[in-house]
Amino acid sequence: MSILFSRECEYALQAVSYLALKPAGELTSIKDLTKKLRIPYHFLAKILQRLVGKGLLISQKGPSGGFGLAAPAESITLFHVVDAVDGSDFLHRCVMGFPECSGKHPCAVHGTWGDLREKVYQMLVNQNVAQTAQEMRKPEYRD
Amino acid sequence: MSILFSRECEYALQAVSYLALKPAGELTSIKDLTKKLRIPYHFLAKILQRLVGKGLLISQKGPSGGFGLAAPAESITLFHVVDAVDGSDFLHRCVMGFPECSGKHPCAVHGTWGDLREKVYQMLVNQNVAQTAQEMRKPEYRD
DNA sequence: TTAAATTAAGACAAGAAAGTCTGAATAGCA
DNA sequence: TGCTATTCAGACTTTCTTGTCTTAATTTAA
Fold this sequence. Notes:
2 copies of one chain form a homodimer. The first copy, chain A, has 143 residues and is mainly alpha-helical. The first copy, chain A, is built from 6 helices and 2 strands, in the order αααββααα. The two termini of chain A are 32 Å apart. The A-B interface holds A 1-7, 10-11, 13-14, 17, 38, 78, 86-87, 89-90, 93, 95-100, 105, 107-109, 112-113, 116, 119-120, 123, 127, 131-132, 134-135, 138, 140-141 and B 1-7, 10-11, 13-14, 17, 38, 78, 86-87, 89-90, 93, 95-100, 105, 107-109, 112-113, 116, 119-120, 123, 127, 131-132, 134-135, 138, 140-141.
């Protein structure tokens, strides 16, 4: 299966949301993150490094080092994260996989899916990680 | 990446749509199907066999054998095909991958995604393969 | 009854995604 | 300085998906 985003992308969304919960400037170690989220340590490390490379996160080595948002949480949308990890091809591909499907040669659900896809896009663009962070305040995520 | 359905599922949707174009009862060989759709022969064979197993298609061996729909095209929806191949987990999973996300502990986009997902479901249920078959009448798919 | 055309079945291979491990680099601190 | 905690980088492994191949079974028709 495969629900819109790769596992890596889902992890990225969760991790960035968690970081958005911390005061700006505070760094969080991978160890801390894996304790809250249930994401394999080394896999998460790789994902965070990639997000640093994309400019979404900053990092610092050494004791009291870790990762933090590179910009205010309000300014980072879910789409920024998705685009950095999975890219945005899903906004263009035919849902039935027809290579010929396009505005000129639409498949049977081209229009319907196009509308829905646009709404998914709006959802991702309108939601910033300060908002999704609220999720992490729930009891399931507390120490 | 991963746009909602697996490659196998996309191929299944295309193949069933193509079969829906033929008069009821007429059988189509794998060779014929691969000529129109650009799907690897043996992979398509495997997919068709699975659809026979699921009761969506019928098959017959030997010369002039092949595959055909097991029911009237109007009665087979896209959802029947998707469910047979990929299952319907995508109707339940959290789009951000939070294991805890549910009606009781919704994530930030739980509601928004729930609405969109329901619309995707409606799209699949309301579209039968007689309708999607029309797509295949277009010049790109003619001999 | 034999030959040809087809599906059936399942082992195998290649590729991609997910996850693991190790060693190096860096930073803080005693 | 040297110790420790951390990220960085990349090779490696495992698992899943996608695709290929081979052989058997079935059907039709000459």
